[in-house]
């Protein structure tokens, strides 16, 4: 099975349209939470995105892999930084996270090639 993470992130965004329309307060609140969590502070945005990706891998969330890979490419995360983060994700999530680490690499490489 081959996943296009660009297509997946577009599909998820499109599928969230009803929530944006009918649960606007929820979606606005989630957006505000995201903005506050990712705002530079003691950790920069790239470090926070690496953490988010590691959690996505450990949680086995395909959508998370797509959205956070896209952000990490935009923020200039290097392949070395990405692989180092995956080591921590696998450590924390075990064998299932190792399988998702392969998917995370595919997402990162797909968005890198498109950049």
In short:
It comes from Luteimonas notoginsengisoli. It contains 6 helices and no strands. With 115 residues, the chain is mainly alpha-helical.
Integer count of domains: 1
Low-confidence runs of at least 5 consecutive residues: none
Helix % is over 70%
Number of helices: 6
Spatial extent as radius of gyration: 14 Å
Return the CATH topology. Answer: AhpD-like
CATH class: Mainly Alpha
Number of strands: 0
Tell me the structural class. mainly alpha
Give the DSSP E fraction (strand runs of 2 or more residues).
under 5%
What is the CATH architecture term? Up-down Bundle
- CA-CA gap between termini: 24 Å
Reading the helices and strands in chain order gives HHHHHH
Q: What does the overall shape look like?
A: globular
Q: Write the CATH homologous superfamily.
A: AhpD-like
Domain Carboxymuconolactone decarboxylase-like: 25-105
Organism: Luteimonas notoginsengisoli
Protein name: Carboxymuconolactone decarboxylase family protein
Pfam families: CMD (PF02627)
């Amino acid at each position: 099975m081959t996943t296009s993470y660009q297509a997946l992130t577009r599909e998820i965004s499109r599928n969230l349209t009803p929530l944006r329309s009918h649960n606007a307060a929820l979606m606005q609140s989630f957006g505000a939470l995201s903005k506050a969590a990712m705002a530079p502070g003691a950790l920069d945005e790239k470090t926070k995105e690496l953490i988010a990706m590691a959690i996505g891998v450990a949680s086995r969330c395909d959508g998370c892999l797509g959205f956070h890979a896209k952000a990490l490419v935009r923020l200039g995360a290097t392949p070395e930084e990405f692989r180092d983060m995956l080591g921590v994700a696998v450590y924390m999530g075990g064998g299932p996270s190792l399988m998702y680490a392969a998917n995370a690499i595919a997402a990162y490489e797909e968005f890198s090639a498109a950049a």
